[in-house]
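In response to reviewer comment 3 from the previous cycle, which asked for concrete evidence that the modeling workflow produces usable outputs, we include below a single protein chain processed end to end. The sequence was submitted unchanged, and the resulting structure tokens are shown without manual editing.
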Amino acid sequence: MSNSRKHCLNNVEALLSKAQEAERRNTEEALELSKEALVLSEEYGYQEQIAKSHMRIGRCYWINSDFFQAINHLGQSLELATKIEDYVTQAEALIGLGNVYITMEFTDQALNNYHTALKIVQEKALDEQESKLLNNLGTLHEDLQDYHQALDYYQKSYLKACSHEDEYGKAIANLNIGNVYLNLNQLDLSLENIQKAYQHAIENNQTLLLAHSYYSFGQYYQKTEDYSKSIQKLKLGIVSAEESKDFYILVRSYVELANAYDNHKNTTEARLHFEKAYDLAKQMNSVEFMPRVHEQLARFYERHDLKEKAYTHYKAYFDSSKIVQENRRNERIKNIEFQTKLNTAIQETETYRVLSKELEKNFRQMQVLSDIGRSMTATHDLSDIFNQLYENINKLMHVDTLVLGFHNQEKKRLDFDLYIEESVRQESFSLDLENRKSLSVYSFLNRETIKMNDVREEYKKYIQGVASSRGDLMLSAMFAPLVVEEVTIGIVSIQAKQRNTYTETHKVLLETLASYLAIAIKNARDTIELARLNKRLKSLSEQDGLTGIPNRRLFDEMYSHLWSHSEEKKQPLSLLIIDIDDFKDFNDTYGHLTGDEVIINVAHFLRDNKHENHFLARYGGDEFVIILPNTYLDDAHQYAQRLKDLIVEMKHIESINGAVRVSIGLATVEPHPTLHRDDFFDFTDQQLYESKKKGKNAVTARHYNRQ
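The workflow returned the following structure tokens.
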């Protein structure tokens, strides 16, 4: 190696070393150093340093919550490190990917990367990486609220860090151990470990660790109800988070600070800091954070009876959740394809070096598999998903029968509503999970893929006996559980009449197809549930909270719609504005609860006495509106008079003396492009005013013509 190349290599290694150190205090600085190292490495073709640079860049993007950039760079690092057999970088890239997927809540994919990394670090005795990995496995179990398992991993990580004198690794383990003890309400042990991490961060100027330590202190003091101290620590944490450029912990710190203020009964400051968290999350342009922030804001506003703002953020929560689900769906698809590609690369490195015809065939199969997966995950209709699977699966293997069963948790059984044999849909059926003669039940309960090429002989490996089969006898069969985010949601089975139909390659293909299918099914179910919740939220936002009848929001929509409809059909439109007479006296004399009771009784009376095509709403306070489509003035006047008279006779409220009376303003119009509905509403309101001037308990009715 020439002196210039050696000098350049030393520069690259120095940059990467500085980047690793900078990551602990300022990720933007670490990112710039890593990118500079990548440019130099690529210029001179240093493969090992290219892989390391991509790994460092990926970690920085993960800390800064740019998850898709993180996955891109960590994936490139992993692919190259695998090819050149750089086991340290390979393990670091796998750990990094696991960290990203934990943050994105892809628990199953995080586990997949961590377990692959664990195999490498244990085989190659990479103590530093094993310490990190044990720590991250602890984080995964902490997120799953399996705190005792998490504590076990963190303590193993601490011991491993001690064995190779990694003080930073020990501090990270201390902080995480402290957080677990916090969740277990062992507060003394929690504080002791958090303080150790904090002390290391102070002594070594590690602002990133300091920000996380202050965040944990903030949580600790909220647990002890010392809200003033919690606020103090969280403010310090925000300063450290801003300095380290870790936006993930910065947003979390603002949210926790807002909760501390809220618990401290300082609603103004709580609202201010919730809004800061929201603004920061928007600036980060990280869709993964938005549902959490919207949910926190919605619950805050709901607690403080700010219903409009609560509804706005609940709606935004569900909308942003849909975006997250879609991104996760796409990322899962890419991850399945990447893992397949990576596994092929590993196989090439360790065994095959030269592609054989069988590998070329497998590659073509994977292309077909990818096409099938994309088509399935592009729809939210379960029948469409099933039909597309059946129509395309014979491009990969021979299938006479395809069966798809879903777990019915309530009834503890598998429901097979999607069952097709030789292109003919069959009747649905169910299997109890206690059934010991079902291969489907066995595969589901044991989360195990089964391949059999002579069912009559091989079933004995799995079950006690075979129940009578449906349809024609199938001698070859495979069963694969449908697993998504570590939850088994169902089972898929493919079957053929002939023996020896399926190979190990077919088994791998079915497992991959099952991954696609599970994603598609979960996405479809999530979409249906979000639609249901959105509909419920919309209904609640259009309903008056006191009376249960439509509110002004819905009135505005219906008024616009019915005006346009009447204009189009050239039909008359009548409008009643109804006001309870002397309502203020009810409140002053009997109190607001009785006043509310009067409003409720009148609302329910109007609801029960309106015609089917009328639209009734509470306009505000003690005022109601009724729209009468295709109704002329005379008919509307008779109806209004009858309402006024009947209200007087309405059953009295026990707590008040005398009858309830109303004044009504009525107007009729033939909507026309030259008229405006707001002017018509004001005109009708003038008629109500005339009724009040007459001495109340009156109806004033006029036809509206443009002045």
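Confidence is low (pLDDT under 50) at residues 348-360. We consider this sufficient to address the reviewer's concern, and the full set will be provided in the supplementary archive.
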